[in-house]
Amino acid sequence: MPDLPESVAANPILGNWVRIRSEGIVEVRSGKVELGQGVLTALAQIAAEELDVDIARVQMIGAATDLSPDEGFTAGSRSIQQSGAALRQVCAEARAIYVDVAAAKLAVAPDELEVSDGQINGRNDPDGLVTSYWELADDALLDRAATGAATPKPESDYAVVGTDVARLDLPDKLTGRPRYVHDLTLDGQVYGRVVRPPSRGARLLDVDAGPTRALPGVITVVRDGEFVAVVAEREEVAVRAAERLRRDASWDERPTLPDENDLAGYLVSAHADSSLLASKEAVTPARSARSHSARYHRPYLAHGSIGPSAAAALTHTDGRLEVWTHSQGVHVLRRELAAALGLSVDRVVVRHVEGAGCYGHNGADDAAMDAALLSQSLPGRPVHLVWSRADELAWAPFGPAAVVEIAADCGDDGAVLDWRHEIWSGSYMGRPGTTPTTPFLAASDRAGGEPIRAGGEPPVEFGGGTARNAVPGYDFPAYRVINHLVTEMPLRTSALRSLGAFVNVFAAESFMDELASAASRDPVEFRLAHVTDPRGRAVLQAAAARAGWLEWTPRDAVGRGIGYAQYKNAAAYCAVVAEVEATDEVRVRRLTIAVDAGLVINPDGAANQIEGGAVQATSWTLKERVRFDRLNVTSDSWETYPILRFSEVPAIDVEFVAGQGNPPLGTGECAQGPTAAAIANAVYDALGVRVRSLPLTAEQLIAAISD
659, 666 in Cβ contact below 8 A? Predict the structure, then answer.
């Protein structure tokens, strides 16, 4: 029996993925969810291609635990690799099954038939023998396990895959139609708000709920341990009631956070589990002519979701729980909610509804738990809950702060002979299902503020977490990669887009530029001298050529820089050339990006993902930094946690280097690290100042000049 794609092996029943309906519609179910990345459009293209139907007939069904296959999290730029491969096989088998049934009905051999937009005709007699998927539609036909016997189309026959199909999700978003979980309105819906502690480590002494309960429109006040919340008939009443309840609560506060201005020092001195992640010994050790070393630092980063986290939940009168959420892992969330609330898993259904921005583990799962708790106080009435902007920026999990130290021994020509890469950072494993303790903020509050413990470090061969892209992507004769996983971070951390790849690539590619400068060699030439992978060389050469690297004319306060990586050392190849202007602040004028992502399902959608990743990385690199004092996070508004404005978005030019004949590699996260490094290297080119601590603010530039 042929090997099945991983997701099909785990969810083998064809009918759980695809349903043919008699009214001329193909329902497609995926375990992956739409986060604004256009993945459902690309998956619809794959289904339409293999079934030979017009894509307008394909209806993508939102992920729900009672309808959709369990494909874990939508994360790591793996949706096309996982769900795309699954749907390719499933739809090929579904097509073969329907053609076999048609052949029996028409009394011909299956290979005498062809399919066009769901109509099944005789190959040599198109106007004679005819039937269709819709005429033959029968759910029982696909109520069987996949076998892997059907062969998907060869790439040379593709007519839908590889074309710029319009995004399925954009019309509603561009015209303001209700689409997000924030817009959800259920029959009998009421509204909840949670009162968060005033600081980390605060303990609730007392709360006088009487004045809040007396407010018109307030239904109830919920207190469970240190979890405090209100439910009201209208949303604005819930907001006012939560503020009143906040004023009537007293807390014991104490400083628990380190000095933000010495965060790097805190990380390298904190207790950590240290391990050698990867190493390579030189076959013939060479004599080093010179050694170099440098330390780089990234602060905590917030997700900065445009729409704060939200959810709705309904506890039925018989105790069953339904939850509507923008979580990236509805099946995992279902299991964790059931465990936290003492319910059997079969009594919980979780449905995905889009949220306005995420890319990582933000507060979506926490909001789902909040809503579920409040719904238990009002069986039969759905509770809709939205976090405040302050709660989103201060209490959602953060991307961990990190320190990276790199050292290299080099030969007479500057070539790297030995490379050492060390990381100090917390874990990115904070999602439901990855932690040793219950992963919800509300569960921590119910337990009296018990910390949420993050998980460990995934193996490098599975992409890693903190150490993602720490193994060098260059052909160095020798290297060592050491990870110091800080076991208890002062602020809660979890997955943020690209995980550790952002800081590791920023550090490694900044250091490669430092080595090139020390050897008086061109940065592009220096990188090419250390890369033998033809796909890596191709993106480096393509980005440099498209950006006019060799024709560059130096100008005052204007610089250009390059960054390169193969994401996770196994996924998409990406090279970025940045052009910046550095005067009173750094402004990125242009990003030229070359990517080899293998087979690209929707080129326009893939370019959108590269552009979006580059814009977000630009924002992280220039502006973003979680601020805190000894008590709490203080960057809880757009004024105190600024992100890139539309007026600051650089011109972006994306080129896909031919990847035909290679499987899809995923695109969403490959631009993060190379973009940061390219910008930092361009700042050095413009000013002659090397800034090793992000973000590249005027404050950091002045500090670097003063060093």
Answer: no
